[in-house]
């Protein structure tokens, strides 16, 4: 396996924090700091901020993503936004299955699968989040949980479509808690995800597959995490709301 085969992806998950004006201002601050990145840079923002973000990043190396999408193409789903709508406004990425969606909004492995299917059909690239709770880690079933989440989400996804999937390993106990998985823990699970992809697809597909780590990654711990063989980038919440910290993480991922 060769880490050099993969381009790292650093994605910010801005969650429910900024207005469109604040989004523009933060992107304006970030753009010069990440312009020489030798990795892919993505910012995922709330639906109402997408236009502002797309406008502010036009012509730059920053790509924009949404934080969720619905599984239906259209219909009576008040308050929802379809993958097709995201594609229509020019959004290339979408986060699916974030643990906050699973925890607070009734997201299940099956609805994650349905959303992944819709996003792929609309031509989007998916950042698929998987991760175990603290209880599950203590019970020693981390890899079983990750394998189940991954297999259900990817059911029916072709090898060609897999090229538009990134998996973010996000241990639930490390998200927004300030507690980070050790670099060894992240590498072990990310390596397990890569082995699973090899068994479901092929070794070549697995070698090219991007597996991020997410969970309190910050300017201080990013370099150690990103140096690991199987950590091909990060999905970053809190630290992505600070331009200098995010730029430090991007620099750490740039080869
Ligand atoms: C996330 O929301 O995906 C995340 C990893 O958050 P944080 O970096 O704040 O833990």
Task: Please provide a written account of the structure.
This protein has 255 residues and is an alpha/beta fold. It has one domain (9-254): Alpha-Beta Barrel (TIM Barrel), CATH 3.20.20. Helices cover 43% and strands 15% of the residues. It is built from 12 helices and 8 strands. It has helices at 20-34, 50-57, 83-88, 99-104, 109-121, 134-138, 142-154, 159-162, 183-200, 203-208, 222-226, 243-253; strands at residues 9-13, 40-45, 62-66, 93-96, 125-130, 165-169, 211-214, 233-236. An 8-stranded parallel beta barrel has the order 1-2-3-4-5-6-7-8, surrounded by 6 helices. Strand 7, helix 11 (222-226) and strand 8 form a beta-alpha-beta unit. The radius of gyration is 17 Å and the shape is globular. The model has no long low-confidence stretch (mean pLDDT 97). Bound molecules: phosphoenolpyruvate. The site of phosphoenolpyruvate has 13 residues, from strand 8.
The tally of strands reads 8
CATH homologous group name? Aldolase class I
Provide the domain count.
1
Query: What integer value in Å does the Rg equal?
Result: 17 Å
Mean pLDDT: 97
Tally of individual helices: 12
The coarse silhouette is: globular
According to CATH, the fold-level topology is: TIM Barrel
The largest β sheet comes out as: 8 strands, parallel, barrel
By CATH, the architecture is named Alpha-Beta Barrel
Bound molecules: phosphoenolpyruvate
Oligomer: single chain
Low-confidence stretches: none
Distance between the ends: 17 Å
Q: How much of the sequence is in beta strands?
A: 15-25%
